[in-house]
Design goal:
Number of domains: 1
Order of helices and strands: HHHH
Helix content: over 70%
Distance between the termini: 43 Å
Radius of gyration: 22 Å
Number of strands: 0
Length: about 150
């Protein structure tokens, strides 16, 4: 289950998702759903930490393999260039994967801070805003205006 699915599940459990009914309906309890989301996010943080360590290890292995092969084929410039180019492209793929993990880890840390630091109703509203914004661009560039 990814973060967007977990936030959707939380919003379903808390009754914050979908159209709202007007009238004197009983509000669903946010206590159980908030505890469920906190437990899920805490477990996901540990998993993402292991993924980041694996990505860093993979980067180190790719770098060492590229350097080792480049040294082995130092007398053949075309082969050495191909090896270094392929190694560079492989490392770019790993870096892109690691970037997605770090962005998700940041969102999870923010969600945990919101759940623990805000009243449940405000936290649910913020989580809904976070869920709705996840369909958009993951990282928007900062615009400096003077």
């Amino acid at each position: 289950m990814n973060l967007k699915v977990a936030l959707s599940e939380y919003l379903q459990r808390s009754g914050e998702a979908g159209p709202k009914q007007l009238g004197d309906e009983e509000e669903p309890s946010l206590v159980g759903s908030t505890q469920w989301l906190r437990d899920y996010l805490t477990g996901r943080v540990a998993f993402n930490d292991r993924l980041v360590l694996a990505a860093i290890g993979l980067l180190a292995v790719l770098f060492l393999a590229g350097v080792g092969l480049a040294i082995s084929y130092h007398d053949k410039p075309v082969v050495m260039g191909s090896i270094l180019g392929g190694d560079f492209l492989s490392m770019l793929g790993v870096i892109a994967w690691m970037w997605r993990i770090i962005v998700e880890k940041t969102r999870i840390d923010l969600a945990i801070a919101v759940i623990e630091g805000m009243p449940r109703e405000q936290a649910a509203a913020y989580i809904q805003t976070m869920y709705e914004s996840m369909g958009r661009v993951a990282v928007e560039p900062a615009v400096v205006r003077r």
